[in-house]
Specification:
Aspartate Aminotransferase, domain 1; 6-stranded antiparallel beta sheet; single chain; alpha+beta; globular; Iron chaperone
Length: 123
């Protein structure tokens, strides 16, 4: 994905880079109305100036961060997917498949729930 090319180029492991690009491209293709942005050196997607989903990479996983309300909303599905998670992020191990339906559930929840939100983060 062209917008995130500098970020992706900074990922040393070719598999991690390819997987991250696949996820970012998948989100952009599925939700073309979302705006790709780089904030705090992390790729994220926004809608009308409000945060929808962010991503980060580590040695062991790709992290998806949709805000805690979306994690609570999708908690049963996160557990079913077998992902480790905290209040603020979900860890998708590099060796595990990406559960795109789970990402879509959280993204769509945030788009609906934040439709009238005028701030970047929920208050």
């Amino acid at each position: 994905m062209k917008f995130f090319s500098a970020f992706l180029a900074g990922i040393d492991d070719p598999f991690h880079r390819e997987r991250t690009e696949e996820v970012l491209t998948g989100v952009k293709n599925k939700y073309p109305n979302l705006n790709p942005e780089m904030k705090w050196n992390q790729p994220m997607f926004t809608d009308h100036g409000t945060f929808i989903m962010g991503f980060s990479v580590s040695k062991k996983h790709l992290a998806a961060a949709p805000e805690s309300v979306a994690i609570t909303h999708a908690e049963d599905d996160i557990v079913k997917a077998g992902y480790d998670y905290t209040k603020e992020l979900i860890r998708i191990p590099w060796k595990s498949p990406v559960d795109y339906s789970l990402l879509e559930k959280m993204i769509e929840f945030n788009i609906r729930d934040k439709a009238n939100c005028s701030t970047f983060w929920r208050k």
